[in-house]
Design a protein that fits this description.
The chain has one domain (about 1-10, about 45-240). Helix content is about 10%, strand content about 65%. It is built from three helices and eight strands. It has helices at about 1-15, 20-25, 45-50; strands spanning about 30-45, 55-65, 75-95, 100-120, 125-150, 155-180, 185-205, 220-240. Strands 1-2-3-4-5-6-7-8 form an eight-stranded antiparallel beta barrel. β6 and β7 (about 185-205) form a beta hairpin. The longest helix is centred in the first third of the chain and has 16 residues, at about 1-15. The chain is elongated, with a radius of gyration of 23 Å.
Length: about 240
């Protein structure tokens, strides 16, 4: 609550001190539809972190959003993907008298589909803060891929496991304007997400000394999923409202 009150206080101050010169730069770029592409990291918290043995996730995502009338409210849709862990088994097979090398890779992944509501004060400064509320779906899945290393060609792929859960949370961020003319901004955001209980694969402890299938180093686990997701990306203005 203190963080929210401080955010609102700073936003009010920024609005009060905005200059007419800066406003003339910002008004023509009043956005109608924006697109964001980003890199993100997933930092599991609490029981979820314990179940994953403190593994971090890395990935990326994209979003589209637009304003709700002339209010400082925006609505958008976001899709992102992250990978928590993976294991690879290298082996060879005798085919037509030749030893052919293969790699068999199993990976634990998270695909996220979210809608969000953003509150961004209408300030005409190069640094623009915002708050967001998020709700959507998480899809945890484990995928295995066998690749012919000589041909660099995937010969088999399979979904070993999948589970869905509802997620919700909130974010705070900053847009740093890089170009008013082209509508480009650097976006920095920290997102907190929490979901209901879900099944997912985590690495065994201790790990098996040998294995014939990379999935054997993992075991199925269950917990609620809480994460902090630091994000950095670029936001681009796709068009503007008519004059």
């Amino acid at each position: 609550m203190r963080v929210i009150l401080l955010f609102l206080f700073l936003s009010t101050c920024l609005t009060a001190v905005r200059s007419q010169e800066t406003a003339q730069l910002a008004d023509p770029g009043f956005p109608q539809i924006l697109f964001n592409a980003r890199f993100q990291m997933g930092v599991p918290l609490g029981v979820f972190s314990d179940r994953l043995d403190d593994e971090l996730a890395f990935g990326g995502g994209g979003a589209l959003w637009f304003p709700l009338g002339n209010k400082p409210l925006w609505v958008g849709f976001d899709v992102s993907w992250m990978q928590f862990d993976h294991e690879t088994l290298e082996y060879t097979e005798l085919i037509d008298g030749l030893q052919i090398p293969f790699s068999w890779r199993a990976s634990n992944n998270l695909l996220m589909y979210y809608g969000f509501l953003r509150y961004k004060p209408q300030v005409s400064l190069p640094v623009q803060p915002y708050l967001e509320g998020w709700i959507g779906w998480n899809r945890f899945y484990t995928r295995s891929v066998i690749t012919d290393e000589d041909l660099d060609e995937v010969v088999e792929t399979d979904r070993e496991h999948k589970d869905w859960t509802i997620g919700y949370g909130g974010a705070a961020g900053l847009e740093i304007i890089l170009s008013y003319e082209f509508g480009i901004a650097l976006d920095l955001r920290a997102l907190y997400l929490r979901s209901s209980a879900v099944d997912f694969y985590g690495r065994r402890s201790p790990e098996p000394a040998t294995f014939d299938d990379p999935l054997e180093v993992f075991e199925l686990r269950n917990s609620s999923a809480s994460m902090i997701l630091p994000m950095i990306g670029v936001t681009v203005l796709l068009n503007t409202l008519p004059d």
